[in-house]
Amino acid sequence: MQARHYPPGPDKDAPHVYLFGTCVIDLFMPEAGLDAVRLLEREGLTVHFPRGQSCCGQPAYSSGNPDQARAVARAQLDLFSQPWPVIVPSGSCAGMMRHHWPALFGDEPAAAAQARELSTRVYELSEFLLHVLRVNFAETQPLLPDEQIVLHTSCGARREMGTRAHGVALLDALPGVSRVEHARESECCGFGGTFSLKHDDISGAMVGDKIASACATGCERLVSADCGCLLNIGHAARRQGAPLQVEHLASFLWRRVGGGA
């Protein structure tokens, strides 16, 4: 993973950003997308949401279907035409857009150039909050009682985007929040997009291990920046009757520092 240069932040005279909402947020967890918008607006930004956006193409790409992934990516390229940052509240989707979109168009110079330019503007949400906006949640007053949480970082966010450290830094700066590390934090939750459908028995064992590890800490809330993982862990915890609630990082941060204030 190459080191990334972080600019000083959006132009104060034109503080605009795009939000790429991801298909999972759009279909299953819209509040996480809305809370991402609220966090960005809290910092004085104007957030634009192109209505034509859909999927990043990762399900097709990771299933070995580059032609279908290319078609999905192509449909997004013209939607983010202004030179504004593209904020993605998902490490795996951000990784697809930043690292794989340019390679998808290797035989199409014009489209490849467009994808490369766009990829330089793609940021995972916690990465953007921490390194570009340089938010300082330590100065905020807690709106809620103290709570302990565990963190889950998706495989793409941890290994491809390197954004576990960003989530850790944001959570550890929150007054009244204690983050507890658990034994299987670095392991996959078993979702993996189509992996959970093709290998449901293996996926079920993996998410079971993840839930048991989180619950062993005594924490009752798991926070993650990837909705696919949250759907998998949350549904499995409910089926097991495990005392574990899940929440997207954007929603957790907004609840702790914004909360409609």
What's the helix and strand layout?
Layout: E1 16-19, H1 23-27, H2 30-42, E2 46-48, H3 58-62, H4 66-77, E3 86-88, H5 91-104, H6 109-119, E4 122-124, H7 125-132, E5 147-152, H8 155-161, H9 164-172, E6 177-179, H10 195-198, H11 200-216, E7 221-224, H12 227-240, E8 245-248, H13 249-257
Parallel strand pairs: 1-2, 1-3, 3-4, 5-6, 5-7, 7-8
Number of extended strands: 8
The helix tally amounts to 13
Level-2 CATH architecture of the largest domain: 3-Layer(aba) Sandwich
Q: Strand count, sense and closure of the main sheet?
A: 4 strands, parallel
Give the count of structural domains. Answer: 2
Rounded to an integer in angstroms, the radius of gyration calculated over CA atoms is 18 Å
CATH class of the largest domain, please? Alpha Beta
From the N-terminal CA to the C-terminal CA, the straight-line distance is 38 Å
The H-and-E topology, N to C, reads as EHHEHHEHHEHEHHEHHEHEH
Q: SS-based structural class? A: alpha/beta
What is the mean predicted local confidence, pLDDT?
89
Measured by DSSP, the beta-strand proportion falls in 5-15%
**Unreliable residue runs:** none
| CATH topology description of the largest domain | Rossmann fold
How do the strands of the widest beta sheet line up side by side? Answer: 2-1-3-4
Helix content: 40-55%
Mass-distribution shape: globular
